[in-house]
Structures are given as C-alpha cells and as structure tokens.
C-alpha cells in the first residue's frame, strides 16, 4: 500500500519526460522544405500534407476510446501502457516511412500515401498525450487544472526542446531529423510506459510538490526563451550548442529529485495518517453506541436533524447535476454543455492556430526582418507554454480559494484573445509582438482549460474520449479561418507576379473578423459559466479534499 501512495510521483515525472519528446508535430517547418524538394511537391501539395498533420495531432478520439477500454475494465488486462504502445507504433511507422521516402530507401509514394504517413506520425501524439494527461488527473484529482497545465505545458515546450536537439546533433540534415523523430519518442515512451500508472491513494500535501514541477517548467521555459533569442541573433559554435543541450537535459532530469522528496515525505506521513484514521474510527464507534444517539430530545441533535432536513433539497439538486457525470461520448454529445464547449474551442483554438499558421506571412507583409519573423515564430512556443501552464494553475487557485468555476477563466482568456486579434489587425510598428504574446498565451490556455472542464463536468471515466472529440474544433476552426478567411482575403488583396501582399490591408479585415469570432466565443464561455456555476458549487467543490468548506 505504501508503494501505491508514492509511485504516482514517479508516474508524473515519466509522463513529463514522454511529453517532452512527443511534440514533433510542432517542428514540421524543420523538414518541410526537404520533404517538398525530394518529393517534387508544389506549395499546395505540401499544405495538403500539413493539413493531415493537423488532423492527426488533434483527432484523438481513438486514443480516448482505447484509454477508457483498458482502464475502466480489469486493470490486469491493460493500463495506460497499452495506449503508449499504440502511440509508439504509429510514431515509428509514420516517421520511418516518411524518412525512407525522403532518402530514397523506398520509391516515392503517391501523395495520399504520404498523407497517411504524416497522419500516423502526428496521430501518435494524441495517444501519448491522452495517456499522460488523463492518468495525471486520476492521480491528482484535487488539482486537475495544475496537473493538466504541467502536462500540456511540457508538450508545448517539446517542439523547442526537439529543435535544440536537432541544432546540436544533426543541424542542416533535416532527413536525419525525421529519422530521429521516428526513434526518439518511440524509445522514450517504450522505456518509461510501465511507470505511467493510475494510483488511487492520495496525500495531504500534493500542491507543494506540484508547484515544484511547475517551477521547473517555468525555469526550462525561460532558458529556452533565452536560447531562442540568442540563436536568432548569433551563430553559436558546436561546443556552445553541446553545452547548452547538456544544461537543458540536466534541467529536464531535475523533476526526479522533486518526486523522490515527495515520496520520502509521504512515507513519513503514512504512520501519522494511519493513527488519525484509527482514532476517528474509535470516536465514531463510541458516538454510535452512546445513548445520546438513541434519542431526539437533545437540543444539539434536534439542530442536526433540522439541518439534515434543510439539506434534502440541496441533495436533490445535486443528484440532478450528477446525472451529467460519468457520461460516455455519445451521451455527452446530447448535452448542451458539450456543444457550448465545442463552439468556444472553435472560436479560441481555431483563431489561435490560424494566427501562428500565418505568422510568417503577416511579418513579411508588415516588412519585418527575417530575424524578427523567426523570433516571433520561435517564441510562440513559449507563449503557448505560459498559457497552458498558467491557465491550469490559476484555474485551480480560483476554484480552491474562491470557488469560481473554470469556464469563467476561459471567458476571460477569450476576451483577452479578442484584444490580441485587434492589436494585430491595427498593424502599428511593434504591435505584432504584443498581439502574438496575447493570442499565444490565450490560445495555449484553452488546451489546459478544455480538458479540465471536461473532467469536471463529465467525470474522468470517459474524459479521454470526450476531450479529444472536442479538440477536433482546433483543426476545424483553423481550416475555416486560415483557408476560407485569411487565405481568401490575402489572395484578393495580393498584387504582382508573385501574388504577394504588403501593408496592413493584407490581414486587417481577417483579424478584425477573428476578433469578432473570439468575442462570440467569450459570450459562449460566459453562458457555459452560468450553466455550470451551480454544478461546480454542488458537485465539483465537494469532491475537493482541500477546499475550505
């Protein structure tokens, strides 16, 4: 039993390491030119392959179904490791076959087959992510926002981490990088997958150690931000790149020390907890056998009875709310809250993803230098991380200390995203930096808030399936805003032989429209907040051991 109480910390650390290795879909730009040249693609064909990357990285319904099937049944027949195996197989096959095509090991595949390779490679990310995120919520149910923020945050940083490895190990060799993507995430997940397990036991001091993981994440994010800026300004020699990579790896190992310390404290706390539990049982037994409990004439007991009667209506209301808990995907899709959350994510995730997909073109139209554009694109991963990590942490804080439902923070971030889109649309010098920070942070926050709200409303049993279905809103929204809105207006405003566009007119109308969309998402999130406000008060807060009732 002691082992069950402590190894969830090791499970968290191994999940963090897997998350750091599996964000390869964020590094498509590293090898896209190599893929285009070796396969003789035009830009439209390359964009088609990229679309299948986005679909694969976000369509995680199968990973959720697999996770539910291997964790809700007999645990001896499976566990999260099964989901990791499925992800590892897809990761290896997708990237290995892609690498074999690029280097000529196999004959150049037709475009649909290459799209399948890309889909498999990106789809593996949903399996790794689902196994780590949902297991984390199982192990730390009182701090779902914090643990989701940590897992999603490290996934957001993984792109920058993998690029640091690429710059040190095989810079200038994108084909070798594709092979690395086939081997590294597969190896890491297969080696560590048996450590990622569900542990039901809880302790009383989780928050302190989770904050330690959060502090490490912030330090790594700051370190990567400095490295990104330096590499975009200076050309670092090989010895400097090796040194910086070693320091990065040491930072990534540091969560293990936090986990070991947490385990030791849990072991010291166990005898005290057992003693307290024994005393409570003795006191309860004495109270039950006391004559005082056999009569209703005692005034204190009368008050208790009256209080119990006054709680009947509240209990009835709670039971009505509980009907929405632990629903499967099809049942959840019949509820209004599911579609409110889905629409809000189309507005937030869709417009945010469309922004980063067009960041380079926006910079070019506003006459930013290549160094400035590269910095904007590279730093997006940092803002994305801050949103993912910060929203999870803040939502837990507001829920535990103020009793505020998480959809309120979602509404606030969507309102802030509205401002970010307007800032970008203005086109004033320097505003692209400010706007990208606002949109990047708010975009990242949706990836922490949406899964956590899903687990709050529908329970953790089928969470993986439900939140991965809602995540499809991201590529759907991205297609609508990137292709049907931004691309259409840009082509309409473009002039010259190369169909390029310069000036604020290229993107102003598009971002004003996306600002309106984000504002609509804000209103939808507000509606979700008022619909779930009572549910959070009656049900969610009562689940929390550490909520000050």
TrEMBL record:
SUPFAM superfamilies: MFS general substrate transporter. It is found in: Membrane. Pfam families: NFD4_C (PF23262), Nodulin-like (PF06813). CDD domains: MFS_Mch1p_like. Residues 336-549 form the Major facilitator superfamily (MFS) profile domain. Coiled coil: none annotated. Keywords: Membrane, Transmembrane, Transmembrane helix. One of its GO terms (molecular function) is transmembrane transporter activity. PROSITE patterns: MFS. It comes from the Eukaryota. It is a multi-pass membrane protein. The chain crosses the membrane at residues 81-105, 111-131, 143-165, 177-198, 210-230, 242-260, 336-356, 407-426, 432-453, 465-487, 507-530. One of its GO terms (cellular component) is membrane. This is Major facilitator superfamily (MFS) profile domain-containing protein. It comes from Juglans regia.
């Amino acid at each position: 039993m002691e082992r069950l109480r402590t190894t969830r910390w090791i499970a968290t650390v191994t999940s963090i390491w897997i998350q750091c290795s599996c964000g390869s879909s964020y590094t498509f730009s590293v090898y896209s030119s190599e893929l285009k040249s070796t396969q003789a693609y035009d830009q439209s064909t390359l964009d088609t392959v990229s679309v299948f990357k986005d679909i694969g990285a976000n369509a995680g319904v199968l990973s959720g179904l697999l996770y539910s099937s291997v964790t809700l049944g007999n645990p001896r027949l499976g566990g999260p490791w099964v989901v990791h195996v499925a992800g590892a197989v897809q990761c290896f096959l997708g990237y290995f076959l892609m690498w074999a095509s690029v280097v000529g090991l196999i004959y150049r595949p037709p475009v649909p087959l290459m799209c399948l390779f890309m889909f498999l490679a990106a789809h593996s990310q949903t399996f790794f992510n689902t196994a780590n995120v949902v297991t984390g919520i199982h192990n730390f149910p009182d701090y779902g926002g914090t643990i989701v923020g940590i897992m999603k945050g490290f996934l957001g940083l993984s792109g920058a981490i993998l690029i640091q490895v690429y710059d040190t190990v095989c810079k200038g060799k994108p084909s070798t990088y594709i092979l690395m993507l086939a081997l590294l995430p597969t190896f890491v997940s297969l080696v560590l997958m048996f450590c990622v397990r569900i542990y039901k036991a809880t302790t009383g001091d989780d928050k302190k150690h989770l904050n330690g993981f959060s502090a490490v994440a912030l330090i790594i994010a700051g370190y990567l931000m400095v490295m990104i800026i330096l590499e975009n300004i200076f050309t670092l020699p090989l010895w400097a790149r090796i040194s910086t990579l070693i320091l990065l790896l040491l930072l990534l190992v540091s969560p293990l020390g936090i986990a070991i310390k947490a385990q030791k404290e849990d072991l010291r706390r166990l005898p005290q907890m057992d003693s307290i539990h024994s005393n409570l049982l003795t006191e309860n037994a004495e109270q039950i056998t006391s004559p005082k409990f056999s009569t209703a004439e005692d005034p204190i007991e009368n008050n208790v009875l009256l209080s119990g009667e006054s709680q009947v209506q509240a209990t009835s209301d709670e039971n009505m709310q509980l009907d929405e808990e632990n629903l499967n995907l099809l049942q959840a899709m019949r509820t209004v809250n599911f579609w409110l959350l889905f629409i809000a994510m189309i507005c937030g995730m869709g417009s945010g993803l469309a922004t980063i997909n067009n960041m380079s073109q926006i910079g070019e139209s506003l006459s930013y230098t290549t160094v400035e554009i590269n910095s904007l694109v590279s730093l997006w991963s940092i803002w994305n991380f801050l949103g993912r990590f910060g929203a999870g942490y803040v939502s837990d804080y507001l829920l535990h200390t103020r009793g505020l439902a998480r959809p309120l923070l979602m509404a606030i971030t969507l309102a802030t995203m509205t401002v970010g889109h307007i800032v970008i649309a203005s086109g004033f010098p320097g505003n692209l930096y400010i706007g990208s920070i606002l949109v990047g942070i708010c975009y990242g926050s949706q990836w922490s808030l949406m899964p956590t709200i899903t687990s709050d409303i529908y329970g953790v049993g089928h969470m993986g399936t439900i939140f991965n279905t809602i995540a499809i809103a991201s590529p759907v929204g991205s297609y609508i805003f990137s292709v049907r809105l931004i691309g259409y207006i840009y082509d309409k405003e473009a002039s010259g032989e190369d169909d390029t566009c310069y000036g604020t007119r290229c993107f102003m109308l598009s971002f004003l429209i996306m600002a309106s969309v984000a504002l609509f998402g804000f209103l939808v999130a507000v509606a979700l907040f008022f619909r779930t406000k009572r549910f959070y008060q009656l049900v969610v807060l009562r689940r929390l051991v550490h909520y000050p009732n």
